[in-house]
DNA sequence: CATACCGGGATCTGCCATCGCT
DNA sequence: AGCGATGGCAGATCCCGGTATG
């Protein structure tokens, strides 16, 4: 163990020096694999290491602890990393530090995705360069990394990443959407190219199946309206589409325009959730006296309502109805349900103070930004009942 | 000028199961 | 057997303001 500890320090040093002297590193070929192979061999020869169930590498634990890594968490997450003889935590730290990451960020990244320390500098550099093709600043990449280290590090296949980027661009998504996609759903880019292709073909198939004329455009619409779609299984999306069709009795063109329009973003809900949500909504509204046709109209107009949890929905409806607002009004202006119960309640209270009558003046006022609402209240106070 | 319509911005990871490779 | 890579899952809104319209 002592020998390997010495070697580790040596290697880390060597790595750091190489790293610094040759930055920006176009041709450094310190591949983790070849190094670890070499090391495994020499370690096996000294007859001490590589016992089955060899204890975790103490020097690695020490070195990570010094960096502020939560080693317990890390070991629990990816124990295999701690049995490796060669790791590149110093290289990773130097690399991220150079990009502007704080020590805290680096420690937290390693704690949450320990395998990150197995990536070589040249690999990291290559991957970063690819990301920079889409994300304009290092700081932005860092914030994504900090949020989701796994998205950046889970795949070690840079070639696949590049192919994915080219594929997604080839779909005709505009730069803004590609940027949003990598920012918001970075996992899309660590999917295998095959998987992304399958999912895109699946969406095109849906379009054709529903009699759509332009599958490419359909796919673009769906993705840009629901950036999570490519990290959902096709099984899930398929079942949700089938369920929507059946429970709302939608025809092809209604379904098609729902999917590529405002409805896109409910496709990724879990099957159970969507199912429960649909039936709960239909039940609740029916109990409150709404006709099926109205409920369908409501969902087509404001499908996001299916994302609202049962409890939240009933508490929102509750406070609207208590204020004397009718179901008919809610169905006409469902956007009101966008706002939190708290927000709605506060507005209603304000409006009661100035004697606002929802029956004659409508409920549109509840769907107003805070700024506009306050201005409106002020005017109402100045000239009550004109 | 006021309201109505509409789209967009923030955000969505962290864990487990499985598979193929060595 | 154990690893790394990858697929898939659960979780469950709220708010703002540009611009057309009147």
UniProtKB/TrEMBL annotation:
Monomer. GO terms for biological process: termination of mitochondrial transcription. This is Mitochondrial transcription termination factor. Keywords: DNA-binding, Mitochondrion, Phosphoprotein, Repeat, Transcription, Transcription regulation, Transcription termination, Transit peptide. It holds the Pfam family mTERF. One of its GO terms (cellular component) is mitochondrial matrix. It is found in: Mitochondrion. Transcription termination factor. Binds to a 28 bp region within the tRNA(Leu(uur)) gene at a position immediately adjacent to and downstream of the 16S rRNA gene; this region comprises a tridecamer sequence critical for directing accurate termination. Binds DNA along the major grove and promotes DNA bending and partial unwinding. Promotes base flipping. Transcription termination activity appears to be polarized with highest specificity for transcripts initiated on the light strand. InterPro entries: MTERF, MTERF_sf. Belongs to the mTERF family. The gene is mterf1. GO terms for molecular function: DNA binding. It comes from the Eukaryota.
